[in-house]
Fold this protein.
Amino acid sequence: MIKVRNLKKEFTQGQERTHVLKGFDLNVKEGEFVAVMGPSGSGKSTLLQLLGGLDVPTEGDIVINQSNLSNMTEKERTIFRRKYLGFIFQNYQLLPTLSVEENIAFPLHADGKKNNQIIIELLDSIGLKELGPKRANLLSGGQQQRVAIARALVNEPSVLLADEPTGNLDRGKADEILGLISRFNRENNQTIIMVTHDIFAAGVADRIILFKDGVIEQVISRKDDDFAKYVANFMA
């Protein structure tokens, strides 16, 4: 599903060059749920932006569904994102004056589509069936994140990218959101890559990629007996 080869990303400001990603390979299978963890500034969010085609690598290849994002034009990447990728953002990025239904439907309108049935089904699946007409800015944080998940899923993407989806939520609400994401992963066989600082969130993934200084430090399975202890020490 996803193949990354020799991925590097540099940023230049004046005479100063910063190497954010320093070259690594990564394979993610179809239907796999992968969590990416690491200290602040380790390159996690940059990786997610590159996987989502929001930026291009300095060097290396990103192949998703047998299409190489690194060789695409900006327009081609935009079309590819709409067709294959869904995004869940930490700060929700909902349009506050639009209703819940309108926010979920927004990606469909961008492609000139209309599918009321899938919006109804998504509202039901996220437990907000009665709140469709309500304005987004009147919702709680947990409700807004649910709407953001539904919006990310409305185009039925094969890959879901989540950036700290539980970062602004308390433990109870975070567990609800993780339950939703995990259910969509199981039921729809969606490939999920989630950036998180939360060891509890990482614990629902199949694999955890530990990132440090722009490279992959280690890849571990949540089934490993010392998973929690190792990750806690790594993030300290």
